[in-house]
Design a protein that fits this description.
Layout: E1 9-13, H1 18-29, E2 33-37, H2 41-53
Helix pairs in contact: 1-2
C-alpha cells in the first residue's frame, strides 16, 4: 500500500470501533504504520484483523 502517509506513524485512540476504527483503517490504507489504542482489547483485535485483511 502506498499513499500520502507512507513512512509515517499514527497513534489512534478509540480504535476499537466507530470513528477511531474508521480513522485507523483509512490511515493504514494510506500507508501509515498505525498503533491502535482502546480499553476494548477485543475491538482492537477486530480492527487489527480488518487492517491485515486489507493488506496492511
Amino acid at each position: 500500500m502506498q499513499g500520502r502517509f507512507e513512512a509515517r506513524s499514527a497513534l489512534v485512540t478509540g480504535a476499537a470501533n466507530g470513528i477511531g476504527r474508521a480513522t485507523a483503517l483509512r490511515l493504514a490504507n494510506e500507508g501509515a504504520r498505525v498503533c491502535l489504542a482502546d480499553v476494548d482489547e477485543a475491538g482492537n483485535g477486530e480492527t487489527l484483523a480488518q487492517i491485515e485483511a486489507a493488506g496492511g
